[in-house]
Amino acid sequence: MVVLGTGWAGTAFLKNLDYSLYDVKVISPRNYFTFTPLLPSVTCGTVEPRSIVEPIRKIIGKNKLLFNWFFILLSQKGEEIDYWEADCYKINTVGKKVLCRSKIGTNLDGTGEFVVDYDYLVIAVGAQVNTFNTPGVMEHCHFLKEIEDARRIRRSVIDCFEKASLPYLDEEERKKNLHFVIVGGGPTGVEFAAELHDFVAEDLTKLYPAIQDLVKISVIQSGEHILTMFDQRIAEFAEAKFQRDGIDVRTGYRVVKISDNSITMKCKSTGETSEPYGMAVWSAGVGTRPVIVDVMKQIGQENRRVLTTDEWLRVCGCDGIYAIGDCATISQRKVMEDISAIFKFADKDNSGTLTVKEIQDIFEDLCIRYPQLELYLKSKHMSDIADLIRDAKGGDVEKGSMQLDIDELKIALAHVDSQVKSLPATAQVAAQQGQYLAQCFNSMRDCEEHPTGPLRLRDSGRHRFRPFQYKHFGQFAPLGGEQAAAELPGDWISIGHGSQWLWYSVYASKQVSWRTRVLVISDWLRRFIFGRDTSC
Ligand code: FAD
Ligand code: MG
Ligand code: MG
Ligand code: MG
Ligand code: MG
């Protein structure tokens, strides 16, 4: 088994996989896992870079300890995991090989390239930044994706302040150097803007009193609002708070060009404008990595935007390849495509009509296979499929005598597929997919060895191999000034200082190891007592 990537998806997979069952090779250009939600905190020194990374070899090693004191007794099979620090630059889906290139050392032919065969390939390479081919972005903007990016931003912020303090600059030049531009009003851009504002207001103004009034932070967003993936109340609160804080939020502006000292943007109503800036961070959009684009071409997915898998996370159109996290998306089966099969399956007595009871009997299975059904019922404020049928057949039909033929079933379920949604590109999704896939692999051997054994019985069998289902536990948007917005399941919105404390506790508990947990918490304490570190 070859695993590509050691981010959220890859690490969750490796943490949950039973290594005694497979010969696992892990390939990734980074030999550590990064806790990406805290990257914005690293850009301003609230948290130190090393506090949010954990060596992958340690994570793998821990898993061994957890499982193995008894696995070693039971079996002497291959429990070693190999990790190789390299990029996979091509996947041969027919020959089942991955072609890799190491940057840190060369082999005999002087290239650092090597080939690995696989039976199972788990692709978890994530996404890359997308500049939408805007000129100048690659050359002049910072990104915020990796730990090195966060380090560079931190150094650059301080550099801007030092530059603006030099004796030979005029006021205009100082202003330019202290203009921080953030392109993209998504969660990352907003969180970085909030973090930067706090850094300036709480720490830097004390150190640079002469130039503190010249600082300007702008957030440029092409849509009408920032934080569009959040509830509208949160977006509005964030916009109002930023306005109070003096952060300039420009909605409806699209950046068209960036040169080394000015940024050009376009707005429908006012046309093109240019503005000088000191530092720009690009956090607008994600794109597909070249190695994935190439796979998509090989397997006939070239018309799609992202690599597509089925609900068991198997890549459609090839054999033995699984994809999890930001690099892939799930293609959800449609109820209407399978409607005849559903009807046949439900019609246990082959009568050609369905009773409500027959439908209710398969309802639970239907909801697992087609999660959109539950969403649809919820959106209609219905708790039972019988309501849906009654609705389609016209109100006053007696429950017991209700019979449905295929056309009536079609009418009843006609709009269910409108609730099919693709999952967001978040750590939460990636981690759940990694965990799910590992559990599938762990029980695969069992099921092959005991095809009729207890594992295949309805309950356990179904639960082991049920399609991937995402559970949304809510999301946060830290807005600075010790305030955060939280959107929790069940339409719960909470905004303010309390949510910030919730944020602290959730992010502390989500750390991958006790080492990083202790480091992150002590960084927060250090910041409370001494402020952020401005030397770097
Ligand atoms: P990644 O975590 O990006 O991992 C990809 C891995 O693949 C990396 O190890 C990389 O080195 C490796 N790789 C890349 N190319 C290759 C190759 N060619 N061959 C082999 N390996 C390769 N999500 C949330 O849910 N909540 C948040 O608060 C949140 N905040 C975020 C803040 C920031 C600043 C960022 C950038 C993201 C944030 N996210 C958040 C999103 C979250 O980080 C991603 O959704 C998540 O990382 C996706 O996991 P992944 O495993 O698919 O990809
Ligand atoms: Mg990953
Ligand atoms: Mg990661
Ligand atoms: Mg995905
Ligand atoms: Mg029947």
Structure write-up:
It is a single chain. This protein is α/β, with parallel strands linked by helices and 536 residues long. The chain has three domains: 2-29 and 86-127 and 288-331 and 423-465, FAD/NAD(P)-binding domain, CATH 3.50.50.60; 137-286 and 473-530, FAD/NAD(P)-binding domain, CATH 3.50.50.100; 336-419, Recoverin, domain 1, CATH 1.10.238. It is 40% helix and 21% strand. The chain has 18 helices and 27 strands. The strands form nine sheets. The chain has a five-stranded parallel β-sheet, covered by helices on one side. The protein has a five-stranded parallel β-sheet with strand order 11-18-12-13-14. A hairpin with a 3-residue loop joins strand 15 and strand 16 (262-267). Helix 1 packs parallel to helix 3. The longest helix is centred in the last third of the chain and has 23 residues, at 427-449. It is globular, with a radius of gyration of 27 Å. The protein binds flavin-adenine dinucleotide (FAD) and magnesium ion (4 copies). One magnesium ion binds at residues 347, 349, 351, 353-355, 358.
Short description:
It is built from 18 helices and 27 strands. With 536 residues, the chain is an alpha/beta fold.
